[in-house]
Amino acid sequence: MAKEQTDRTTLDLFVDERRPGRPKTSPLSRDEQLRINKRNQLRRDKVRGLRRVELKINADAVDVLNHLAEQRNMSRSELIELILLAELERQQQGN
């Protein structure tokens, strides 16, 4: 039987593996853990109806957004979404 690094059902195969450093709670490498966590995050976002949008804006605008988000006790992405939705609503009312 082949040993697969991401196989969680045969943990007994990993018992003899000794690596230097602090003890791990997972037999998976850090890279594999990050990959699995990212996949799970994308699934959670999809279930919540969220889609990823990448945006490049001026650093001064980012600073202002960070400040406003901190004042309102919300994340920057939540603030950007709020601003966009308000503008879209305003655009629809104007037509």
Automatic annotation (TrEMBL):
<feature type="region of interest" description="Disordered">
    <location>
        <begin position="1"/>
        <end position="30"/>
    </location>
</feature>
<dbReference type="InterPro" id="IPR002145">
    <property type="entry name" value="CopG"/>
</dbReference>
<protein>
    <submittedName>
        <fullName>Ribbon-helix-helix CopG family protein</fullName>
    </submittedName>
</protein>
<feature type="domain" description="Ribbon-helix-helix protein CopG">
    <location>
        <begin position="51"/>
        <end position="91"/>
    </location>
</feature>
<dbReference type="GO" id="GO:0006355">
    <property type="term" value="P:regulation of DNA-templated transcription"/>
</dbReference>
<dbReference type="Pfam" id="PF01402">
    <property type="entry name" value="RHH_1"/>
</dbReference>
<feature type="compositionally biased region" description="Basic and acidic residues">
    <location>
        <begin position="1"/>
        <end position="20"/>
    </location>
</feature>
